Each structure stands twice: as C-alpha cells, then as structure tokens.
Structures
1.
Amino acid sequence: MLIRKGTPADADRIAALHTASWRSAYATLMPAAYLQGPLAEEHREKWRTRTSALGADRLLLTAEEDGEVCGFLHLCTEDRRVHVDNLHVRPDRVGTGLGRRLLRRGFAWAATEYPGRDVFLEVLRGNDRAIVFYERQGGLRTAERPLRLAPGLVLDEIEYTWPAAQVGRLAEQEPQV
C-alpha cells in the first residue's frame, strides 16, 4: 500500500471514492435521490477545486494499491485547530486498518506542521461504524450541531477532538509524510 500526497491529477479518483463511500455509509441517513443524483457531480467539482488549491495549510493523502485509490485523507487548518475534513476508504476496505493508518499520518503532519493545535472532525449522527472508529482512536466528543448538506437536507453531526498532547503521542506511532 502506497500512501502519498495527493495532487490535482487525483481529483476525479478521489471524488469517485468519496461518492462510493457516502453511498455506502449514508444509505440509511440520506435520501436515495440525493445519493444517486447530484452527489457525484458535487464531489467532482469539490475535489477539482480543492486539489487545485493545495498549499502549506492543507494535506491531502491518498492510499493506493495497484494504481487504484483505496482511501484518502484531507486536513486543513481552521479556528486555530487542524480539521480532518475528509477521511474515506473504499467500502470494501472498511475495517482493514487503512483508515487508522491515514488518520495517524494526518496526526503526524498536524504535530509537525502545527504543534500545539488540537485536531477535530465531524461525523454524522447515525454513522455508527465511524463513531465507534473515532472513539477507538481516542477522539473525545466535544460538540453536537445541525449540518445543512443541501436544501431541505439537515442532519445532526457530532464533533470529535484530539487534544494537541494526544495528537503528538499518536503521531509518534506512524511515520511522517
């Protein structure tokens, strides 16, 4: 498994994986019309824009095997913290340890580039598999709020935070990128 920094050339493959991940993980949380409708194009546009704007304040990692993107992680700085904006693995790779490896690589980047900053992310209420995963990785539930995903589509999200000292300890468990 090759884990490397993502580039603009990865945008469409990341968007496709992102869409497949949502369709699998959120099948019972979001309307099928949204998941099967505009989502794929929204993700293509989002990742083409994001990958064209990569800079020192962002990290995009892709995990590849045999030339196929199996997972990705996107982090950015926000509010004096580091935000795990996206962490997705191919649905058939869930539970293999790939998500943990990507998250720990992200912690290593945060500890090196932004020492002393907490790391946080949001997860949709009802995404029980992800909630269990983040809690096993030491995430602390720090907030809950509504999230507007599209017109008429509002779901509850839960924020998880890893305090800076914990990020540093977890970072030591993975090689830096």
2.
Amino acid sequence: MKLRFLGKNSQGGECPTLYATDRDSYLVQGWKIFANDLLMQLTIPEGETAVEVPTELFEHLEKDGLPSGEFRRLEDPLMILTPGGTYVVQGQEVTDPEALAQMDIPDYETVVEVPKAAITALLEEPRGADLQRRAQPAL
C-alpha cells in the first residue's frame, strides 16, 4: 500500500496524522482509546479498532481535493464527537507491514483505514431519504 502524507496538527514528533492511500481510502493515525466511557459506546467488529483524533485533523482533506468544512453528520466511520473536541474514528485496523513501515507510530497510537467514499459522504449535506431514515424511530 502506498501512502501520501496529508497532514498532522503538531510540529513535534508523533501525533495524529492523516494519509491518503492508493486504495481509495484514508489512514487515520490516532490515539488508542482507553477511556471506558468511550469504549462502552462502541461496538467494534473483529478486525476493526477505533482511534481518537482532533477534529482539526480532517482539515487536511483539502489537500486531497475534498471540500473544506465540517462534517455534516456523525455516522460510520466517525462514531463519536467528544466534549473535548475530538472524533472517535472506527475502521479496519492497519496491519500491512509496508504501510506501517512508512509511519512513525508510538505505543499509545494505532492506525485505522477508512474508505474515501465514507469520509466524502460525511462532508455532503444529507439527502431527503437520509433525513427521513434518521427521523424514523428504531424498532
């Protein structure tokens, strides 16, 4: 997997980082989640994990040709917006040795892969059908 660095929100060493891949996806390097209150809100399937990143990290999507601006809705792969102004992002845990070798990942961080289409959809205004579906009560 080939990576293209999009950005991070620190001038120092390791910190949450965003990459574009040659597989039409993004790699989100972020903090491992240890807080029980966050973990209890998630259902994480086998092979997936979640990371916490500052909301500002996604400003770097502009470098990949996506419109700047805020996400219009909170759904997969963005699972939670925390009171501290961070997102919890869930996706396939990255285990590809070639990809991991291109990153500097401290012990307290990990990396998830999310489809570009899923991120792009969150930047768009919800369509009528999406609004109706969200307004329907759960069965």
3.
Amino acid sequence: MSRLTITTRTTATGPLLRIAGDLDYATSEELRTHVTGLRLEPGQCLVLELGGMEFCDSSGITALLVARHHATAAGADVALTAVPDHTRRILRIVGLDQIFTIRPDGAPAAS
C-alpha cells in the first residue's frame, strides 16, 4: 500500500509543501486535491520540497504539473527543492526541468 505525507507550512513568500513517501497512481490525487485547495496570491511562490519522496511515477509527475498550473493560474510561481536524483532524472528526460524552477538541495526552501 502506497503512503504519502504532505505537510504544509506558511512562509513569507507563500506555502511550502513537504512531500514524503510514494507519489504514484494511488496517492497522486491526494496531492492534486491538496494543491488545488491552496489559495495563492500573485507574486507568491509555492514550494514543493521533495526530499522525503521515495518514488514518483507518471501520475506523480502529472500531480506536479497540476501544482504548476494552479500556481501559474493564480499569478504565482512554483519551485521544487530537494528533488531526489531519480525524480530529477525523469524531469530532465521529459524536459520538465525546463519549466520547473528546481532549487539546489542545500538552498532554503522559502524565506
């Protein structure tokens, strides 16, 4: 059974979501629902911290794209941080590293 944990924290620049566990077919709807329920303001940055993510399939990638679309529609930005190597590789292969802001693992998630 897949397990996903999403922890939300409000920062000065916008919401920070810490995502841990498996982001797959069984759990991706949870992230999509969580993200689309967030109220974002123009100029904010939605940060998705993925350091605790153990697995991500195509459904998980789609959920990340939903987060990006939700942020963009609100006039906000989205950034990924602490992206695991296996997920970073997938993003690079499909060209999504060109549309997501990917912060270095050691960079602060948000102010």
